Amino acid sequence: MALKPGEGGPARSDLVLLVADDDPAVCAVCRDVAEALGLRVLEAGTTERSVETVDRERVDLVLADLRMPSGGGMALLERLKQAHPQLEVILMTGYGSVETAVEAIKRGAYDYLAKPFHLDDLRAKLQHAVKELELTSENRILREQARGQPGFGGLIGTSPKMQRIYKLILKVSQSRHPVLIVGESGTGKELVARSIHFLGPNRDKPFLPVDCAGLVPTLIESELFGYVKGAFTGAGRSKPGLLEMARGGTLFLDEIAELSPDLQAKLLRALQEKEIKPVGGTERVPIEVRVVAATNRDLDQAIRDGRFRQDLYYRLNVVTIKLPPLRERKSDIPLLVHTFLERFSDPARPVGGLSEEAMARLMNSDWPGNVRELENVIERALALGAGPVVHTVDLPSNLQSPASGASPAPPREGILPLRELEKRAILQTVEELGGDKLLAARLLGIGKTTLYRKLKEYELEA
Fold first, then answer.
1. Where are the domains of the chain?
2. How many alpha carbons lie under 13 Å from residue 265 in its C-beta half-sphere?
């Protein structure tokens, strides 16, 4: 009986099930149930084909027949768990016994299903496995955050705009759709691309960045598509392109708008046909790669001006992440300053913090160079400053006088130590998250126990 999409649970599109069975009827039933749960389904009729599929494709869950040709499900279980420990495997058989089930579980099987099975039993097993996979993925993501800087995957900030960015990154990281990152220079576009890759299920695969603005067109073509021996002067041997080398992973195309029209057409063809032809070659090479592109240009205007292909734009623009400039999230500046002070301070000459006036100068700037400019300012101040506190005199000349319309500096220049910066960052984060201390701890990159201790230490409401 065919099931309607979504029947039996919420639809999903980011988990992949491999049905490993030589019986087409069983495969069809499993496909119906799995697709109704939102799973993408692959099929394989032998042990070898199953192993090849898992090695070649992204697979999250395997439903395998214990009595498969060429080795059987138990052998397949051992091979898959050895090569892919995170993979969950459910074994099914018409020759079920308690002893076989126990042995399968001992060897790493997630669960066991005896044939003939009822559709409800199969659905329940798959639903339970999906929930486990989701929980495992969420816990892994939180561990990644806890190991990083305050914020998210190297991105720093707890403002509402950045929280929306973090949530979007989490969503898109679990799929393989193309992503277009748009933002001014210095906003952290590559950090977003890296977060998308390393928070996703293919984080063990390559992440290869390409600066499209930093290479001449001929060099970009050979970098992306590779070349064969003798393709041009100096090509003494063949070299695979980055589109091929990033197999199973992510290719990050920074400043995609700088590609020439000819290269835009070749890239579009590669993404559509999922194959490339190396420079000077005649054979086409299959590719399997996720493309994340970034730009600081207005691509709509570039399309109108005839400088960017509209069809390539539609291919890349499946999901768009628009990064806010620093001037639109100034509440994050104290936390950014705190992070950069800790990052660049010399242990032999520690800096206690910023003066009130210096912080006021930073808060009043529009930061045309965004986070990268602020990072440079703090590093420069620590390199040139002589005392334990960063004062306005340690800042670049354009930041040493009050900005137009800014409030006048207080007559007495107080000290804003790191402890005070930390206190403000914690209070601001907890308040902006409506008192959600668990989420606040995650975004600050600290444990919940540590957060409660600091709230008590700073006499903030716990």
1. 16-139, 159-324, 327-457
2. 4
